[in-house]
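Ticket #4471: structure export looks truncated?
Reporter: QA, pipeline team
Priority: medium

Steps to reproduce: submit the single chain below to the structure queue and open the exported record.
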Amino acid sequence: MTDLAPRELRVLAAVDAEGGFSAAAARLGTTQSAVSHAVRGIEGKLGAVLFERGRFGARPTPAGERAAAHARRVLRLLELMPGEVRGAAGGARGGRPEGTLRVAAFRSAALHLLPRALERLAAAHPGTEVKVTVVRELGAGTAGEVAAGRADLGIATLTGTPRAPLVGGVLLEEPYALVHPAGHPYPRGLPLVDWAENCGSYTRDWWTAQDWLPAATVRAEDDGAVLSMVGSGLGMAVMPALSLTAAPPSVEITDLGPERPYRRVGYVTTPELAATTAVRALIRALRAGEMSGKPAAG
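Actual output as written to the record:
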């Protein structure tokens, strides 16, 4: 097998991102035939069909998805290499982050956890640009964005040790609490309001053991919509602490007791990116603001 050149990696990433050879060619400033020829050459080198061709464009096969993810991760390291080398040559402690740091985070982490860390990062490394993408924690979630090479670091909900090719660590364990309209005399008798990202594997056993919890009668788009609906008197909800940060006065938060479930929130990245200056700096900033995981007041 012959190694792939960076230009071939860029072709892979472009076809995957654009969903077709013509659009990839426009993105790369070349011709459709050149992209098609390059893909055939890459497939020959790798020994696998990477894209299904048709009137729909070019859809990646499972092998193509894996190849494109590898391509994006390698290209990212090549992009970061000059700054990392200059930082090491300058002799500064850990160097200075350069370029844009790409972060994927689920909604409540992006709203209530990440901003404080980014403030600390900006104070320690002024000039570092950060691009934050909010990703729903469904399916591959934020970890999937990192594994696919579309983010350098993800703020994710963790159910165990991150799976290869990822590494990571726990930042906090946040308790769940009952949230209901303020002053309601019997909140557990209200209808349940929920959203798709709630009740992961970390709470499922607890959830099914609660006889008082009915099936959800209202499904909202996200935790912010749930809070708004509960505040309007439409029902109760069981929500993690980050989602209840700055909860409005129209809702009341009640402790679920010593058997309350917890959600682990952490960061994920790749082993290679974990060694880069910018990612290390953001991890330090995140760890400096770890929450204690104390029960919500009620």
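Status: closed, not a bug. The export was complete when the record was re-opened. Leaving a note from the reviewer for reference: Residues 291-298 have pLDDT under 50 and may be disordered.
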